[in-house]
Amino acid sequence: MNEVLRNVVIGAVAIGIAIALGWYARTYLWRRKLRRKQAFFGLPQNSESLLVVNRDAGGPDLMVTRNDVFALLELSALIKDCGAHAQLITHDSAQQGFGERTEFCVGGPSSNRRMAAHMHSLLPGVRINTDPEPGPDRGAFQIGPERYRMEPGITEYVVLARLTAGQGKEARPVFLFCGQRAITNQAATRYLAKHHERLSRKYGGNSFVLLLKVVNSQAYGPDVVELVADVTRAAQEQAPAPKNSHRAKQ
User: Fold this and answer.
1) Helix, strand, coil tally for the chain in percent (to 5)
2) Which residue did the predictor score with more confidence, 73 or 7?
3) Which stretches are transmembrane (predicted)?
4) Which SS3 state, helix, strand or coil, does residue 9 take?
5) What are the pLDDT digits (tens) for 110-126?
6) What is the Cα–Cα distance from 210 to 159, expressed in whole angstroms?
7) N- to C-terminal Cα distance for the chain?
8) Torsional sign, CA 49, 80, 90, 163
9) How far apart are CA 246 and CA 151, in angstroms?
10) pLDDT by residue (tens digit) across 201-218?
């Protein structure tokens, strides 16, 4: 009887140790994954961040488009997952530098002054046609020698960037979501939420600028997104005269 009891006790202890080790391993992996996520977004526990919102170019001040609201919700979930806090401010009230708090800036330069300032200072190689008059180049991107025209609802482009403004890896990053239409801003935030682990492995704490293409948004919304190119180098250099235009095949 004593032998049986001893075996039962030993088995129970072994099971307890196995459970404890499994719990410790899962906790360790979860914490390591969280730390990597926090480092990539520049969002340590209980830190503060900024959500800089644009406005509907055709509406009154403080009016945010439906798709940009969805983009902000995507970003808010990421911030919450990191255990950080977000302050929502309008583009024309964000009068401060960068590097102290992580910033998420949403919207094109025509509706977001903060975005226009970031593009001018940090991405001189990206030019965006903000002419309100209809035409084939309305809203077009020029990145280096390449020009990317949009066909609303069919082929649209968005720039997704993580930048540290040359302040080193310890500076809090600025994330830019600069699209040709509001739905492309949402597509870029969704792409970041889905692929941030891969982007973290590839770029670490370095800056990057990606050009994304949103395919057939009139049917698929912001869900079908293709990576066109890593345009970091071209975006950070002064743009030359355009040579090539990219449009969807007819």
Assistant:
1) 40, 25, 35
2) 73
3) 6-25
4) helix
5) 888 899 999 999 999 99
6) 6
7) 84
8) positive
9) 10
10) 999 889 999 999 999 999
Cα gap 24→79, rounded to integer Å: 25
Give the angle subtended at the CA of 74 by the CAs of 73 and 79, to the nearest 5°: 90
Q: What is the largest CA-CA distance in the chain?
A: 92
Q: Is 32 exposed, middle or buried (0-12, 13-18, 19+ CB in 10 A)?
A: exposed
The residue type of 247 is R
> 3-class SS at 216?
coil
* pTM, 2 dp: 0.81
Would you give the DSSP letter of residue 100? S
Query: What is the structure's pLDDT at 57?
Result: 46
Q: Which amino acid would we find at residue 250?
A: Q
- The amino acid that residue 132 corresponds to is P
Identity of residue 119: M
pLDDT of residue 144: 86
* Backbone angle region of 127, left / alpha / beta, with phi > 0 → left and psi within -120 to 50 → alpha: beta
